[in-house]
């Protein structure tokens, strides 16, 4: 035999396969690393689905955690709101149509309101009200008498005068006026005004 296995003397070389310890060590290290990565990934997935000790980390895990709408405590009825029989209304016509003030005053009287002056509007409003009307009163009437009268003419504009005294309020009829709000609708609006329904508030329970 030639080359490195050439026989010299009476001894023969041992023909062994090259040792593969290096490969085995690398393979072992690689296997351990792969198992470590797989284990870490499994742990992360477990944390995701269980929350990992943090209740906020798992989305949608707790079926009992929901937002529920519950009515807020009912507000006490507005004791300051007067009834129609305690409100005196001056009915004033700011249009060119005659008879509107008297006709409207008669209808308001039937609905329980007290009627004061009936006639034409003052110069500052005469033929200058383009909408259905203006409800005018002292500052104290903004959240008392004006809302109550507003149920009878829903589209009317509400105004106050700081210098105005007394409790009377004006209904100034405008160009777009045709009639008062239908009595049935006005009664419902008045009832809702005196007994407002509570607004639902959202509560989160987990």
TrEMBL record:
Identification of the protein by name: LytR C-terminal domain-containing protein
Regions that span the bilayer: 24-43
Pfam assignment, any one: LytR_C
Residue ranges of every copy of the LytR/CpsA/Psr regulator C-terminal domain listed in the record: 86-177
Coiled coil, from the record: none
Annotated keywords: Membrane, Transmembrane, Transmembrane helix
Region (Disordered): 65-85
Natural source organism: Streptomyces chlorus
């Amino acid at each position: 035999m030639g080359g490195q296995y050439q026989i010299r003397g009476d001894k023969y070389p041992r023909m062994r396969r090259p040792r593969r310890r290096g490969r085995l060590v690398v393979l072992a290290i690689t296997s351990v690393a792969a198992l470590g990565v797989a284990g870490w990934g499994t742990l992360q997935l477990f944390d995701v689905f269980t929350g990992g000790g943090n209740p906020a980390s798992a989305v949608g895990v707790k079926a009992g955690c929901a937002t529920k709408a519950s009515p807020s405590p009912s507000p006490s009825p507005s004791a300051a709101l007067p009834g129609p029989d305690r409100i005196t209304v001056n009915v004033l016509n700011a249009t060119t149509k005659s008879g509107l003030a008297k006709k409207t005053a008669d209808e308001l009287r039937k609905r329980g309101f007290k009627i004061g002056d009936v006639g034409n509007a003052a110069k500052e409003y005469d033929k200058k009200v383009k909408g259905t009307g203006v409800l005018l009163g002292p500052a104290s009437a903004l959240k008392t008498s004006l809302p109550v009268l507003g149920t009878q003419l829903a589209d009317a504009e509400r105004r106050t005068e700081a210098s105005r005294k007394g409790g009377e309020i004006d209904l100034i009829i405008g160009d777009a006026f045709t009639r008062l709000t239908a009595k049935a609708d006005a009664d419902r609006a008045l009832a809702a005004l005196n007994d407002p329904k509570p607004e639902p508030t959202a509560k989160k329970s987990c």
